[in-house]
Amino acid sequence: MVREYSARGLVLERALELAGISRSQYYYVKKPGKPGRQATKTTQRMAEGTMVICDNAEVVQTIEGIRTRKYILPAPTTRCSFAGN
Question: Which of 28, 36, 71, 78 is the most buried if burial means most Cβ atoms within 10 Å?
Answer without folding.
Answer: 28
